[in-house]
Each structure stands twice: as structure tokens, then as C-alpha cells.
Amino acid sequence: MRKIQIVFLLILGQIAYSQVKTTDELYKTAKKLDSLIFDIGFNTCDLSHYDSIISNDLEFYHDKGGITSGKDAFTASIKNNICGGIQQSKA
Description:
Number of helices: 4
Shape: elongated
Distance between the termini: 65 Å
Structural class: mainly alpha
């Protein structure tokens, strides 16, 4: 029983310390791109930058709607659902 507890603690310790630090460049890049897609795209419906940051082979998995494949389908989904069928653009 003691061996199982030690193995469990070792595994738990590895999981707990396997996150990227907030000062890491990977973290900063992911946070910036996430903000462009979700904060700006979803919250303000400004989809003008999606062409430059979203890949054509994107696969987006929604917990209720399932998979959306491709940049065009993803952008259309955001525009027609979250943004209510209209796209606001910032001049």
C-alpha cells in the first residue's frame, strides 16, 4: 500500500509542476493569440484579423455543437452565432 501512495504522489507531483511559467515566451504567445481569437473575435465581433491568425485546417471542438473544420466554417460560425449574423469592424 505504501508503494502505491508513493507512486501516486510522484505522478501527482509531475502533473502539478508541468505547467509553462507565465514568463515563458510560449505562454506569452499563446495568451496573445488566444486573446485575438476570443477577446476580440468573440467579445467585440471584430473578425478582420482571423485570416492572418487562423489556419485553413483548424479543427474547433465545441462541447455542444461538436467539430467545426476549417477557417471559413469557424469564422462563419462565429459570425452567424455569437455575433448574431453581423460582423462589426473597427475602422
